[in-house]
Amino acid sequence: MKSERPPAILKDKWVLIVDDEEDVLDVLIQILDMCRGDRASTFEEAKALLEKNPYDIAVLDIMGVRGYDLLKIADRRNIPAVMLTAHALTKADMIRSIEEGASFFAPKDRITDIARFLASVLEARQINANTWARWFESLGGFYDKRFGGTDWRDQEREFWEEKLKDWDSA
């Protein structure tokens, strides 16, 4: 399940992975073996780890572990967070994730690409670029297909124009 070549920026980064499914945690730890990884399967475990450790990045499930509450803690501690979800894969959850400080919103269907997603976030932050512009570049087509075409962004045009404003420079 490993990707062909791990992005160099991930080497030795400290990542917190939170999901209530042990098999998902196992897969993520395996994929991200170039990182120093901590895992948590409950909100309480994750909260304690987030409040104690200066992680480079966090991967948060939304359902089952109170992912949005964890996102608030990560955001407050300036830890970039990637929301990884299967059940909350909706426009409303995507927008909420953005508004509450997430750096990326990824479907569990694309779990094998997680190293690339994390690298994208870290690279964008390193140069003060918009992580959401890179998100759109990576997953825009996936969401266009999921939400029935490209017009799903038209309903919140101003919101998306703001979020993707430096796409060309990312």
Question: Would you kindly provide a written description of the structure presented here, covering whatever features stand out?
Answer:
By secondary structure, this protein is an alpha/beta fold. The chain has one domain: 3-Layer(aba) Sandwich (Rossmann fold), CATH 3.40.50.2300. The protein has helices at residues 22-31, 43-52, 67-76, 91-99, 114-126, 131-146, 157-163; strands at residues 14-18, 36-40, 57-60, 81-85, 104-107. Strands 2-1-3-4-5 form a five-stranded parallel β-sheet, with helices on both faces. The mean pLDDT is 87.
Count of individual beta strands: 5
How many individual helices?
A: 7
The CATH architecture category equals 3-Layer(aba) Sandwich
Largest sheet: 5 strands, parallel
Low-confidence stretches: none
> What is the CATH T-level topology?
Rossmann fold
Give the N-terminus to C-terminus distance in angstroms: 28 Å
Question: How much β-strand is present in the residues?
Answer: 5-15%
* Overall form: globular
Radius of gyration: 15 Å
- N-to-C order of helices and strands: EHEHEHEHEHHH
Q: Kindly provide the name of the CATH class.
A: Alpha Beta
Overall pLDDT metric: 87
With strands numbered from the N-terminus, the spatial order across the biggest sheet is 2-1-3-4-5
CATH superfamily: Response regulator
Tell me the number of structural domains: 1
Give me the secondary-structure category: alpha/beta
What's the helical proportion of residues? 40-55%
